[in-house]
Design brief:
The complex is a heterodimer of chains A (175) and B (311).
Chain A lengths: L1 H14 L45 H13 L3 H4 L21 H10 L14 H14 L36
Chain B lengths: L10 H33 L9 H37 L7 E8 L2 E6 L12 E5 L4 E7 L4 E4 L7 E3 L5 E5 L5 E7 L11 E7 L1 H12 L8 H12 L29 E2 L4 E2 L2 H14 L12 H12 L3
Parallel strand pairs in B: 1-4, 3-9
Antiparallel strand pairs in B: 1-2, 4-7, 5-6, 5-8, 8-9, 10-11
Helix pairs in contact in B: 1-2, 4-6, 5-6
Classes of the chains: A mainly alpha (175), B alpha+beta (311).
Chain lengths: 175, 311
């Protein structure tokens, strides 16, 4: 009997560990690095984030899913498809021209890259760029499984992000 | 106009209102009779003749009669319900005007169907002519929403991937408030819209104005505002017809200054409210899809001046 009681007590105590993921709506303008316009210099928008800085949405299921939505909305899928690539390189694989550094992905989006990747500077708010960074990383399993998206709204063309074949990648760069 | 199904302003809402009156009246009478019979049974003293065979027989007749009356009442309620349903959800009139309603988190897009109205998109403000049957063709771009204008008709869900239809008609000119009636996320409560019912001539004038594109900026301040819009993040989501802005993820802003509210009925349209909304929409309506923007004050001023020309 006392075992049942203890079981119940433990079950109740375990609930205390549950925590709702926070969605920092009120801090979106402040979240993540630099302000999009204020810090603009004649040369380029603000100082680039130091290498290795993870996206502030790296572990946020909400942030990664927002990134997934923006990925379609801003027509990243137009060139990169849903990760398989097309006009642009694939994003769901483990071979990336400009490395796996989140700050590098950030500057790819903000500054653009040669041979077609346009610059979205001043077009996409800073926090949304970081959401896109987190989502792009999740496509090749670089974000925590618990945060990555589990399904697509459109027809499934590949495994879901939290079931990517490149699970457990360490962010080292080229193969 | 108070947002209430009890003050109907169209045939569908009238059917719903009279049905609810019928139900309320009959149920109230039944309730009073039932409670009265119960109290009578509790407080009545036992009498010597209670167990006599003729009393038992009489009681049997009374119970059977009550059963028949109950059954007849239920049939009457069912028939009146079916009749009201028919008036609300019956086949749409063939000459009904078709308007498409698209639900988004958390705003409404109303598009007028049939050339040359097809260009007209009027977010969060549905204009209809008085006395003309309207068919709303509804769908959703994200989650399930529900279209509800209590003064005009019942609810209809907007379901992603399929279209649903709803008939409505306003018999009196006026402004009726509508509201999303299916929980759809953080800002479900701030997903309202206005139905503006106006006489046919006024409606025609409105639609004529809505069909035109945005006016060209006419002075330096307006030109600067135009440039702020076209070179900033605004252009990534919004359309202003007759300019290069054509994205469809946010509300069409071609006539934003002509509408009474912004942010789906959250704020009245004014320069100050537009400024608040552009600078930090997340403080006004946390979680909505409009990002907060860091804009230099002089650029914001120019942008507001430009937006105010979009009548």
């Amino acid at each position: 009997m006392s075992r049942v009681v203890w079981c119940a007590v433990v079950c109740v105590l375990v609930q205390a560990a549950c925590d709702r993921e926070s969605r920092p709506f009120k801090d979106l303008a402040k979240v993540a690095g630099r302000a999009p316009v204020e810090s603009q210099t004649p040369l380029y928008a603000g100082a680039p984030a130091p290498p290795g800085t993870p996206s502030p949405f790296h572990e946020s299921g909400w942030g990664i899913n927002e990134g997934k939505l923006l990925y379609t909305q801003y027509n990243c899928a137009g060139c990169h498809a849903h990760g398989g690539g097309g006009i642009g390189p694939a994003l769901m694989d483990d071979e990336w021209r400009y490395g796996f550094d989140p700050a590098g992905i950030y500057s790819t989006i903000v500054e653009g890259r040669p041979n077609g990747m346009p610059s979205f500077r001043n077009k996409i708010p800073d926090y949304q760029v970081w959401q896109l960074v987190a989502y792009v990383q999740s496509m090749s399993g670089q974000t925590p499984l618990t945060a990555s998206s589990g399904r697509d709204d459109h027809m499934q063309s590949r495994r879901a992000e939290n079931n990517s074949p490149y699970q457990g990648r360490t962010q080292t760069g080229h193969k | 106009m108070i947002q209430s199904p009890l003050s109907p302003a169209g045939p569908q809402a009238a059917a719903i209102a009279s049905l609810s009156t019928v139900f309320f009246t009959i149920c109230a009478v039944v309730y009073v009779l039932t409670i009265g019979a119960l109290l009578w049974a509790i407080f009545r003293r036992r009498q010597a003749t209670d167990d006599a065979p003729q009393t038992t027989r009489r009681l049997g007749v009374v119970v059977a009669a009550a059963g028949v009356v109950t059954a007849l009442t239920l049939v009457a309620l069912t028939v009146s319900d079916a009749a009201a349903q028919r008036r609300v959800n019956g086949p749409p009139s063939p000459d009904a005007m078709l308007i498409e309603a698209i639900g988004h988190q958390w705003w409404w897009d109303f598009t007028y169907q049939g050339s040359p109205l097809e260009l007209v998109s009027s977010p969060n403000e549905l204009h209809i002519p008085v006395g003309v049957p309207i068919t709303i063709k509804a769908t959703s771009r994200d989650v399930i929403h529900s279209f509800w204008v209590p003064n005009l008709t019942g609810k209809r869900d907007l379901i992603p991937g399929m279209t649903t239809h709803l008939s409505l008609q306003a018999d009196e000119p006026g402004t009726y408030r509508g509201q999303c009636a299916e929980f759809c996320g953080h800002q479900h409560a701030h997903m309202a819209f206005l139905v503006v019912a106006e006489p046919m001539e006024q409606f025609q004038q409105w639609i004529q104005r809505q069909r035109s594109g945005a006016p060209q900026p006419s002075n330096d301040e307006q030109k600067r505002g135009h440039d702020v819009f076209m070179t900033g993040p605004c252009v990534m989501c919004h359309t202003i017809r007759a300019t290069s802005a054509g994205a469809r993820f946010g509300p069409d802003l071609t006539h934003v200054a002509s509408r009474r509210t912004i942010a789906a009925g959250t704020l009245t349209t004014s320069r100050e409210h537009l400024a608040d909304w552009i600078r930090d929409s997340q403080a006004v309506k946390p979680g909505n899809r409009m990002p907060p923007n860091v804009v230099r004050p002089e650029n914001l001023d120019a942008l507001l001046t430009y937006l105010e020309t979009l009548q």
